[in-house]
Amino acid sequence: MSSKLASQSWASKLFAKIGAFFGIIVDAFSSWLETMPTQVTRVVHGLAIASLISQVGIIITGGAVRLTKSGLGCSHWPNCVPGSMTPVPEMGVHGLIEFGNRLLTFVLLAIAVAFFIAVWNMRKTHRSIFTLAWVLLAGIPAQGVIGGITVLTDLNPWVVSLHFILSGTLVCLATILVNRTRRELKQENHQASTKSVGQFATAAWILSMLAVIMGTIVTGTGPHAGDASAPRHLFDPLLVTRMHTAPVYLLIVATIAVLVLAYRADGNSKVRTAAWWMVVVILAQAAIGYTQHFTGLPITLVLLHMLGASLLLVAATNLWDCAVRLPRSERVEQR
User: Fold this and answer.
1) For 62, how many CA atoms within 13 A lie in the half-sphere containing its CB?
2) Residue 125 contacts by C-beta under 8 Å, 6 or more apart in sequence?
3) How many Cβ atoms sit within 10 Å of the Cβ of residue 183?
4) Of 77, 113, 119, whose CA–CA distance to 98 is shortest?
5) Closest by alpha carbon to 169, among 265, 292, 309, 41?
6) Are 220 and 232 in contact (CB under 8 A)?
7) How much is the pTM?
8) pLDDT tens digits for 104-163?
């Protein structure tokens, strides 16, 4: 009986020491969080820029995985191959390419965690920035999970499309973060545009997303599947290509409308600059898109088109963010 009591006493002391140890760690971490900035600094803005660059970067590296037929270079998830987290020699260069792309997810995660910690003390005073920070952070594990489903479904084109769309959404969120942190850093007041400019800018953003979504269906119908055994859409390639270009034509109209209205009735110079960037991106993306279509989809041009799609989302989101009227609470934050 005394032996049992002694054993319980020893276990209680051990758990008490473990609890005290974790308590010290939590207190130290809480104290460290309190040292984080209460206003946007150059470091915070730099982390927002790094987040945007890395989100665009992983889209490009993901495209390189598909275009080099390395989509199943790691045949399992979360392991690369059964029994191994890393590629084995039998997988060759395709395993290294796919595994390298997986590792980049941890770079994105590290940047997102660093940004989230950096704005922790702004969670009440800069709510939009803090909200975007944790949504962006939550989106990265979601990227990994959908990427895993992509592998487990042998690169099903619908799942591949979903993976790209989520990545594009995170690019949009990161773009807004760059804008909002820049305004705070430079103490710029958000200059609202006219209602009509905001409406056409919103339409341009929606049409950009539609063009990108339709582009994923074109990709799922095309020859670059990521692996020779991967399934493909059975749509008519010419038909889905025309469906992809339909929102692009409407996007051109919306962008021209923003430009005309911005010069005629809107004194917001940032909207005019953002609209011109949209024009540049649209023209470059159209040139690449038509060239790749009529030259048999060479992988270099396809990869450039993916970069163009990312930049289109950046430009459209930037235009929307410059043109829309912020909610009252956020206008107060911008002062």
Assistant:
1) 28
2) 38, 333
3) 19
4) 77
5) 309
6) yes
7) 0.87
8) 999 999 999 999 999 988 888 888 899 999 999 999 999 989 999 999 999 999 999 999
